[in-house]
Structures
1.
Amino acid sequence: MALSGLEIYKHLPKTNCKECGLATCLAFAMKVAAGQAALDECPPLSDEAKAALGEASAPPQQLVKIGAGDKTIELGQETVLFRHEERFHHPTAVAVRVSDELDNAAVEARCQEVAGLKFERVGTTTMVDMAAVYNDSGSAERFAEVAQVASKVSGKTLALVSSQAESLRAAGQVLAAERPLLWALDGSAEDGQAIEAAKELSLPLCLEATGFDGIVALAEKAREAGLKELMLSPGKVDGAAAIEFLTQSRRAAIMKKFRPLGYPIAMQVLADDPLQAVVEACWYVLKYAGLVVVDLARPEHILGILCARQDIYTNPQVPVQVEPGVHVIGEPGPDAPVLVTTNFALSYYSVESEVEASRMPGYILSIDTEGTSVLTAWAADKLTDETIAQALANSGLESKVGHKKLVLPGLVAVLSAGVKEESGWDVQVGPKEASGIVSFLKTQWKP
Ligand code: SF4
C-alpha cells in the first residue's frame, strides 16, 4: 500500500540539508508520496530507513538518466495517465537514426544535420536530443568507431542500438564517460550478456522483446541482476499495436503499480513515408513514449514532432508567459508604432510575428496579466486603463518615440477613453485579431 507523506517523513533524517534539491525533508516526503521523487535522491538516508520504506515508497515509474553533465536527459518518473490530472514531467527524448553502414562522410553529414535540428518556438529553444547509432553492419569495431564520430560531430547524447552484446560492450566502453543508453534489440538481452555489459559499465539499458510476457521476463531478469535504470521497447510494432502497448504499459505502471512495466518506453518509428513517420512519431510522443527514434533529419519533419512534444509537456496549470514590459522589434525610430498586448505567450508571439511580417520596426508593450489573454485579462480586471497607463509610465517609451500614440487591441476598444485619460497618450484602436496587424500598420497607423 502507498505510504503517506507523513509516514515517509518519520523515517527521513529531518536535517533539512537540501541535498535532495528541496528546502525541507517534509517537502521531499510529500514528493516521494506523490511518486515524483525516489528515496535515492536523499543521500543521507540510512539503509535501515530505505529498507523500512522499501518498495511502498518507490515512484510507479523509474527515473532514467541518460548522458552526462549538461547533456543529461531525464526520462520517466511520470505519475499520471492524463496531463490534466497534474502534468507530464520528463519530455520524450527525440533521437535521429544514424546507421553504422554509412560511409564516414555520410555519417558526418548526418550528424551535422542532427546538430542543426534546433528551433526557437514560443520563446524557448527546442531541439533533437539524441543520435541513435544502429549497428546495421554487425561489426563491433565499426559500431564503436561510428559511435565516437556521432558523439563528437552531433554533440548529442547517444543511444547505442544493436542485437549483439559484444557490439554494445565495445561502443559502450569507449563512450562510457558520456553515459549512452545501450539498447539490446530483438530479445537479444535474453542470454544475459547485454545485462552484464550494462551492469559492468554502469550504463542505462533498453530491453526489447515482442509482447508483454517477453518484456516482463527481461525486466525481471535485469532487476534481479541489480539494474535499475531500464527502458523497455516492444520492438517493431506500429499503428494500433504500438499505441496499445504504450497505453497498457503506462496503465499497469501508474494504476496497478506493476513494477516490471514501471520504466519509460522507447519506440522506433517504422514508416518509410516521411509524413507518415512524423504522424507516427507524434502519436508516440503524445501517448507516453519516453524516447522516440526517427529516420528523419529534415527540419520541416522534425519541427512538427518537437511542437507536439512541447505542447503536451507544457504544464497546463501554469500559463505560458513572456516577460512583461517593452519588447523591441527591429530598429525602431521616433515614428515607430507602440502596440499593446498582454504577457500571455500566445497573444504576445502572435503580435510579434505580425509586426515582424509588416517589416515596420516598432515596440510591443506587454502588460503583466499573469499570462492571460486579452479578453480574459480584461474580464478579470487585469487589463484595465490603469494597468496599461502604469505599464506605459514605467516603460520609458516617452523618451524613445517622438509621438504619444498607443495601438490598443481591437477587442478592448472600450478602454480607449480611460487609457487616454489615465496616461495622456492618444489611442488608436487596432485590429481585433493579430492577423490584421500587417494591413493595419501599412494603411492606418499614423504617428
Ligand atoms: Fe531532508 Fe534528505 Fe532532503 Fe536532506 S536530502 S533535506 S535529509 S530529505
Note: The chain has a mean pLDDT of 94.
2.
Amino acid sequence: MSSTRAVTIRDCAIGGPELVVMAGPCAVESREQIFRTAEVVSASGARFLRGGAFKVRTAPTAFQGLGWDGWKLLREAADAFSLLTVSEILNEEQIEGARRYVDFAQIGSRNMQNIPLLRALGRSGLPVMLKRGFGCTIDEWVHAAEYVLGEGNPDVVMCERGIRTFETATRFTLDVAAVPIAKQRLGLPVIVDPSHAAGRLDWVESLTLSGVACGADGLLVETHPDPAKALSDGPQAVPLAEFPALMEKARRVAHAVGRTIPAGARLEAAAC
Ligand code: PEP
Ligand code: MN
C-alpha cells in the first residue's frame, strides 16, 4: 500500500484515518434549502457543505447558479453548523473574491485541462479538489494535478466522478480503480463522487459504498431537501431525509476497511 500525504483544511485532515464526507445540493438555490441541508448533513457526520454558485451547465438555458449571492448563503449556512465549504471556481477572476466563501476550491470535470485555471489556483494557495475530466485518462488527470503542484501548492485532493464509456445505464462510469492508482501515482488523497457517476438516485448508494470500500479518502455526495424541485441534478440527489441512513451504511463499510466517519454534530444552531 502506498502512503498518502494528508491535506489539512482548517481542522479537517483529508487522507488520514477519517473518511471526510462532503455533502449538499448541486447548486445553492435558496436560504431555506441550504440551511436545512447544512443542518442534516452536519448531524450525519459531514465535515463540508457543498453547493455550486457558478454552475457549468451543458445547456445555456439551464439554471446557472446564484453567483456571489449563492456563495454568501453557502458560507452562512456552513458557519451556522460548523461546516467547511467546497464549491466550484470557474475562472481566475473569481479566485480572490472566493477566499471569503470557499474553503476548498473545486475544479470541475469540464475544466480539468484548463491550464491557466490550474496554474492560477496553484498560485492562490487555496486547497484544490481536482475532479477528473470525464473524457480524460488517469495519466492526464495526474498531469493536471502536477500543474497545480508545480506552482508550489501542495494541497491537492483528487476526485473520481465517473468517466464517459459506451455504457448509458449510468450517467458516467465510476472508475473505482482510479482511486488506488491516483493515490499511488501522486501520494495525494483521492475522494469519490458517486452522484455524477450514477446520475440517478437508484445507483448512488452502491457507488458510495464501493468508493468507501476501494479506499477513497472522502465522499462528495449531492443531497437536496426536495429533489423533484431541484434546479439542477435533481435525479441524482439523495433526498435529505434519506441522507442519515446512507451515511450510516457508509460508516459501516468504512469501519470494515479501517476508516472512520464521525458521528454527527449536535444540532446546536438554529435553522433559519
Ligand atoms: C458538480 O459537482 O456539481 C459538478 C458540476 O461536477 P462535475 O464537474 O464533476 O460535472
Ligand atoms: Mn451536480
Note: Residues 243-256 form the longest helix (14 residues).
3.
Amino acid sequence: MRVMRKESSPKKQTVYTEQMETFHRAADLIGMHPRVRLELEEPDFEHIFYVTLDVRDRLVPLHEDDEEAHRFKDLPASSMKAGDALEPIANGDFVLHRRALLNADITVREGVIRIANRGLFKMVKGEPRKFKAYRIQHNQVRGPYKGGVRFHKDVGLDLFKTLAAEMTWKTAIADIPFGGAKGGVRIDPQAYSREEMEHLTLRYMYKLKNLMGPFLDIPAPDVNTNGEIMAIMMRQFTDGQRTPHAFRGVVTGKDVRIGGSEGRLKATGQGVVYCIEEWARDKGFQLPGARVIVQGFGNVGSAAAELLAALGCRIVAVNDANATIHKDDGLDVAALVKYVHENPENLKKTVLGFPGATAIPKADFWNIDADIAIPAALGHEIDGNVAETVKVKLVVEGANGPTTPDGDRVLAMRKIDLIPDIIANAGGVTVSYYEWLQNQRMEHWTEQDVNARLERAIKSNYAIIRDISRDQPAKTVTHDSRRYCIGKTADMRTAAMILALKRIEAHYLLEGFSQ
Ligand code: NAD
C-alpha cells in the first residue's frame, strides 16, 4: 500500500519541519503506513518546565580604563588566604564564597574590591533565577527513550523536538533497542560556576524523576554536559533507593569508575572515523596523508581528530566557538588536545591561543583546501553558501544537523560525498547501549571488546545505507541489505532515513496499535 502525504496549507518553516523533510521523503519512498507516519510526525511527549537556582554572589571585573574604575585608582589590594574561595567562571567573573572572608585582609569601597594581581571587581549580590527546561520524548516503540542533555543559551522546543526525533532515527539505524529523546536547559553555562551547574543539574533531574529510568528514558551527555553531569543526574535519580546499583543504567556516558563503559568517551569520534574508513575503502581513497578540517574541538571533534591523526591524516584546521587555527602541514593533535582539554587554565576549553598554529578568521575556515570536512559543533553551519565554498571530497556530520537542506542540495550538485549525522555520529549512542547492557549485567567490558563491537555495528549499518543509496541489495558475512533496498536509488541522507523508518515501522506493523 502506498499512501502519499496530504498536501496542507504552507506552514512556517522551522528547524523541525526542515529536518522532517527527509522523514517525509523517505516515508513516501517506502509507502509508509499512514498511521505510523502520524505516530512519528510529532513527539510522544513534550515536557517543558522551569528550574530555579540560587545564583551566588559574584565579583565582576571592572576594567581599569572604565570611567567608574578611575575613582578606585588608589584602592589598596585585598588579600584572601582561603585560596579556593574565589571560584573563577569562564566569563571572567568569580563566585565569592563566604569562606573568602576567613583570615582575609580586605578593603571594600562602594562595593568595589581590588584583588592582588587580578584587578578591580564589583561585588554583585546573588539572586534566585529561573531557567526554561525541556525533555522531549519522541518515540519509544523500539525501547526506552534515549537522548542527550544539552545546556546552551540558544536551545528551545523546536530544536529539542528536532534532536529528539533524530535520536529515534539514530537508535533505529544503530539497531539498538532504544527510542529517541532529547532535553536540556536554556542557560549559558560559561556564566555559572561548577557548583551552580551542579545545583541546576540536581534540580533538573529532580523535576524529571518520574519520567526517567533505565527502562523509561535514559539521558546522556551532549553539548556542555559530560560524565560529571551524568554522575550528578544519577545521584539525584538514585537518591533514597535501597538498591541504587540497580538503577545505574538511568544515564549513560558516566565515568568508567562508576559504571561507565570503556571507549564511551571517544565513541562518537570513533564512529565518525569508522564511517570514514568504510567510505575510503569503498572509494579506494588513501587515508594516510589526507587533509582534514574539523569544526568543534569538544568531545566529538577532538576524538575524531586524534583518531584520524593516528591513521596518518593531517588535521590542517580547527574552528571552535572562540577561534580558528590553521597549520598547513598538520596540527600536532596530541598537543592541541592537551592544550584544550587537560589545561585547567583554559576555562573555555578553546583552541584560541594554541601556540602551534596560526589564527585565521572563521570566514576562511571552510575555504581551506582539504579532503574531508568534519562539522562537529552545532547545527546549521553548512548552508548553501558554505557548501559552495568547501574544497573537500567528503563531509562527515559529527554534529547533529550541521548541513541545511540548501547545503545538502549544493553538496549533491557539486558531487561532494556526505555521510549523514544519523549514521556518522551514532557511535556514542551505540556504546551508550553497551554501557547500559554492562550496567544491567553488572559487567565491565574491555576497550578492545567495546571497539570491536562498535566497529562491526557501524560498518555493517553504513554498508546497508550505502546499498540502499545505490539500490544494490546484498548479503555478505557482515551485512544484509536485501530487506531495505527499495528498487530505486536515493541520496545517503534519505537512504539512512529509509533504513530507520523500515526498522521502526516493523514494530508498528508486527505488534499493532494498542487502542
Ligand atoms: P562539546 O560541548 O564537547 O563541544 C562543542 C564544540 O563546538 C566546542 O569545541 C565548541 O567550542 C564548539 N562550538 C560551539 N559553538 C560553535 C560555533 N558557533 N562555531 C564553531 N564551533 C562552535 O560537544 P560535543 O559533545 O562534542 O558535541 C558536538 C556535536 O556533536 C553536537 O552537535 C552534538 O549534538 C553532537 N553529538 C555529540 C555526541 C556525543 O557523544 N558527545 C553524540 C552524537 C552527536
Note: The first helix runs from residue 15 to 30.
4.
Amino acid sequence: MEQSLEGMVIPRHIALILDGNGRWAKKRGLPRPAGHKEGCVTVEKTVELAARMGIEYLTVYGFSTENWKRSTEEVGALMQLFRYYMVRLLKVASANNVRVRMIGDRSRFDRDIIDGIGRLEKETRENTGLTFVIAVNYGGRDEITRAMRKMAQDVKDGQLKAEAITEETVASYLDTAEIPDPELLIRTSGELRLSNYLLWQLAYTEIYVTDCLWPDFNREELEKAVIAYNNRERRFGGTS
Ligand code: IPE
Ligand code: IPE
Ligand code: MG
C-alpha cells in the first residue's frame, strides 16, 4: 500500500549522489552522454519537486574531483551539458523561487563556465525558497584541504588564533559555510560508498541507497526515501 507524506517530517537538507547515468544508457544501447543528458532532465524535475515539498536545501553531486579521470569525450560531453543546463537552470530557479549555490573548486573550469556559475548565483541570490546546491569539481578531501590552507594562512596573518579553532571554525571555512548539515543522503544505483562526498558534513546523516538509476528517479522514489527517513531512529552517539 502506498504511504502518503502527511504528518511526515520533511528533512531540511537532502544530499544526493546521482549515480547510474552510464548504466541507464548502457541498458538502452546508448552512449554514456545520452544517460547524462537524461540525468540533467531528472535534476531539473527533482529541483521542482523538492521546492514544492518544502525542502530547504538540496545538494547534488554533479561532478567529482575524480571524474576528470573519465575519457576526454565523456568529460567534454559533461562540460557541454553543464553549459546548456546552466542557462535552463536560471529559468527553472526563477520560476520556482530557487536560490542556486555551487560548491567545489570552480577554478579548474573554462572561463565561460566560471562566469556562468557566477551569474547563476548572483541572479538567484534574492530568491527565498529552496537553496539548490550543486557540487561541481567537488571532493570532500579537496574541500577540507582548501579550507585548511586558508585557515593556516589566516593564522600566519594573525587573523585567527590556532588555540581558538573549534569545529564551528572549521565548518565556516568549508564551501558549505552557513548551510546546515544534511539530515538525509540519497544515493541512486545501489553503490554503498560515499565517493568523496561531503565527508565533514555527513558525519551523522541518515543514508538511503536505492537501486533506481538516476535518470529513472522520480517523485515516488523521493517520497520512499523520505518515508524511510521517518522510520529511522536517529541517534547522535547517545542512547535513545
Ligand atoms: C553519475 O552517473 C553522473 C556522474 C558521475 C557525472 P555515472 O556516469 O557515474 O553512471 P554509472 O555509475 O557509470 O552508471
Ligand atoms: C559519484 O559518482 C560522483 C558523482 C555523482 C558526481 P561516481 O560514479 O563518480 O562514483 P564512483 O566511481 O562510483 O565511486
Ligand atoms: Mg557512477
Note: The mean pLDDT is 96.
